[in-house]
Design goal:
heterodimer, A: about 280 residues, mainly alpha, about 0% strand, globular, B: about 425 residues, alpha/beta, 6-stranded mixed β-sheet, 9 helices, about 25% helix
């Protein structure tokens, strides 16, 4: 071996070590991440008639459907909270998580054309997805707060709590879980195309295993662990408690979610980084 | 040795061929389970050896390539299709990784394997400049600084706020190249992107690349077009089957490369791709110059003879033999066709193994390289058809009497003609 020569700015080797993640490079490309966010926002808007209105229509329609089907027809409990607010809280949180998950899940297969022609840190794509969905989330959250204010003024028994301060943490958890699981799936789809079909379906199923359409308190004690094992449940519950004053908040559950998010994120980034170096030869 | 910009050491790249990408989770689990139990791979066909990762069913796209490229050099990379040129560029651009060996680089690399990567059809020209620039590695501030220059180079001021899906393909390519050309990297890697766009724009691109190299930056240029490698590059390497076959000055390497594809007794037509029914095959082809010597270069205005040796089975009736030579320029534009049915030379009873000779008394082509496609027919049946691996090289010569130096900017073909001046058109 030659003595290390520090004047080289880049060395291309067969395979980097598992933990050579080059996150500094992602930082250097932050302008690209923001341009991707902006592209997704602008391009989405350009192709539709209603444009950004869709950001409002979507959660309202989902909430109305939930209210009619689960609230009115099935008569599920909402712990005394107005149906509409209860379901909307769940829908807003869930749609951010599930959008992050399903969109980051096809990073490699969806961007093969670009990835095959030019190098940039591949993580820029899934990270930009988190941010572009954040725009939708912010709009929907604003709408939710407007409905909340309306209900509060008309005297419904709901009230935000001090847990509102935990919002940034909840956001981090949602983004972390969505991104972590998403890029794990995305790394595996380069080899197993089957997963592509599974992920949208799986996200749907996972919703029913999360307390989106029913409160945790309505679940019999002995089955509750199943729901709590789902790291999204504490997020939804805490979100509801923060805004509506209803829900089960336990620090232990939140800590579990955080640990879960951290693990999938680390595994995801490492795996993603691994696949990034070789996938062009396999797709 | 601080003036080396790129140091390539024992670089190899292996591609597995076959069923990659068709794997399913089930198959992989099966394999894994068998390995755990120490059984052979259950999915291997009987008689097929367990080949692990590297085996026979693969291809070494690059095989132990070592090369040092000096800063400020303009290096052309030439070679046949599949010689490993593009693989080398891909590894340099970090689109894919090598199997073994390493490359060390000094400075930022910008690679142009394709123009317009990441262009979004619904976004305007302005928006795409920012997006594409960022994809290629520029920061927003850099792009803003270069913006006017880019628009100016691409010549699209009027349409800068129009979505690029409404652009003509020429405008699209111009804009895309303009963004890439303004990257200002220390090392510029260019694959044959110049094959697109019109002549004037191609010249602009070549000019830009020349300018980049005069500024002391390193340029790597892959091309099939020996002419542009010749005019643009100081040095060149010739790659063949994943290995470096030769390196040196561009002129030396190009000559070596030419010699290999045109041996003294014509060019080998053994391994080329052919069409046609195959009832007759051209077995050898060569050019002869004015002196009757076999050569692949002929001066403009001098006689040229193209010789085709052919063979056909004894029972094949060759009475309706028609031979066509389609001549195109290096941008794949067909210039003219030489055919015995055009010249009126109908063959009564050609021998079943013989030689066809086509003679042009004064070659009206400007200096440059030309491609020839050979097509042989028996009546309506095409019996043999192939693109000649041998290119016709036309060198400087005197065809017209004028003193004005001629170059390809005037076109490819010369015509003998006369001019007269007078007070009025008297029709004489």
């Amino acid at each position: 071996m030659q003595p290390p020569d520090n004047t080289w700015t880049m060395v291309i080797r067969p395979q980097r070590s598992w933990f050579d993640l080059r996150l500094d490079e992602l930082w250097a490309y932050r302008d690209l991440v923001m341009l991707f966010v902006w592209r997704d926002f602008v391009a989405q808007y350009k192709q539709t008639i209603l444009g950004p209105l869709w950001y409002l229509i979507q959660p309202v329609l989902t909430t109305v459907t939930f209210t009619l089907v689960f609230g009115r027809l099935a008569g599920l409990s909402t712990d005394g909270v107005p149906d509409f607010l209860f379901y909307m809280a769940g829908a807003v949180v869930w749609s951010y998580f599930s959008a992050c998950l399903t969109k980051t899940a096809n990073t490699f297969t969806g961007n093969a054309a670009i990835f095959g022609k030019v190098y940039f840190p591949r993580l820029a794509v899934p990270v930009s997805i988190l941010f572009s969905n954040l725009i939708a989330f912010a709009i929907q959250l604003g709408l939710f707060v407007a409905f909340l204010a309306y209900y509060m003024l008309s005297g419904a028994a709901v009230a935000p709590t001090i847990w509102l301060l935990a919002m940034p943490l909840l956001l981090l958890l949602m983004a972390g879980l969505g991104l972590g699981i998403g890029i794990i799936v995305s790394s595996l789809t380069t080899r197993y195309r089957d997963l592509q079909f599974l992920v949208a379906f799986g996200a749907q199923l996972l919703m029913y295993a999360t307390t989106v359409i029913y409160p945790l308190s309505s679940v019999p004690e002995k089955y509750r662990w199943v729901l709590v094992a789902n790291p999204m449940t504490p997020v939804v519950e805490t979100f509801r408690y923060a805004f509506l004053g209803q829900g089960t908040v336990e620090l232990l559950h939140l800590a579990y979610s955080a640990a879960f998010a951290l693990v999938v994120l680390v595994v995801g980034v490492v795996l993603f980084n691994r696949v990034e170096q070789t996938f062009m030869d396999t797709v | 040795m601080s003036d080396v910009a790129i140091s390539i050491e024992n670089l190899s790249k292996y591609y597995r061929l076959g069923s990659i990408g068709n794997a399913t989770l089930y198959q992989d689990l099966n394999r894994w389970w068998a390995r755990v139990r120490g059984r052979p791979d259950p999915l291997l066909r009987i008689g097929e050896a367990d080949r692990g990762n590297l085996g026979k069913e693969g291809l070494w796209a690059l095989n132990d390539v070592s090369l040092e490229i000096r800063a400020g050099d303009v290096l052309g990379i030439i070679g046949h299709n599949g010689a490993g040129k593009s693989t080398l560029l891909k590894i340099l651009s970090r689109v894919t990784g090598p199997t073994s060996g390493q490359i060390r680089v000094r400075g930022r690399i910008a690679s142009l394997l394709e123009v317009g990567t990441g262009f979004h059809p619904d976004l305007t020209g302005r928006e795409n400049i920012y997006l594409n620039g960022a994809i290629l590695g520029m920061t927003k501030a850099e792009i803003r600084r270069k913006f006017d220059e880019i628009v100016d180079f691409a010549d699209v001021e009027k349409f800068i706020d129009t979505p690029v899906k409404r652009y003509s393909s020429g405008m699209y390519v111009r804009l895309a190249f303009a963004v890439a050309a303004h990257l200002e990297p220390e090392i510029l890697v260019v694959d044959e992107v110049l094959a697109v766009g019109d002549m004037a724009f191609q010249e602009k691109c070549i000019g830009k690349m020349g300018q980049v190299s005069r500024e002391g930056r390193t340029v790597l240029f892959v091309s099939h077009n020996l002419q542009s490698v010749w005019s643009l590059c100081r040095n060149a390497v010739w790659m063949d089957h994943g290995k470096l076959r030769a390196s040196g000055t561009a002129a030396e390497v190009i000559n070596l490369y030419r010699d290999s594809i045109s041996s003294r007794d014509g060019v080998s037509l053994q391994d080329i791709k052919r069409g046609g029914s195959g009832r007759l095959r051209v077995t050898n082809m060569h050019f002869r110059d004015a002196t009757g010597v076999i050569s692949d270069s002929v001066a403009c205005g001098e006689p040229l003879e193209i010789t085709l040796s052919y063979e056909a089975a004894d029972e094949v009736d060759l009475r309706q033999l028609e031979a066509y030579l389609h001549v195109s320029n290096d941008r794949h534009f067909r210039l003219f066709t030489l055919a015995n049915v055009f010249s009126g030379d109908i063959f009564d009873a050609p021998p079943n193994a013989g030689v066809l000779r086509c003679r042009v008394d004064e070659l009206p082509l400007l200096p440059g390289e030309y491609d020839i496609t050979v097509s042989i027919r028996l009546g309506v049946e095409v019996v043999d058809k192939f693109a000649s691996p041998l290119r016709l090289v036309v060198t400087e010569g005197k065809y017209l009497e004028g003193h004005q130096a001629m170059n390809r900017a005037w076109g490819d073909v010369l015509l003998k003609h006369r001019w007269i001046v007078g007070k009025q058109d008297d029709g004489s």
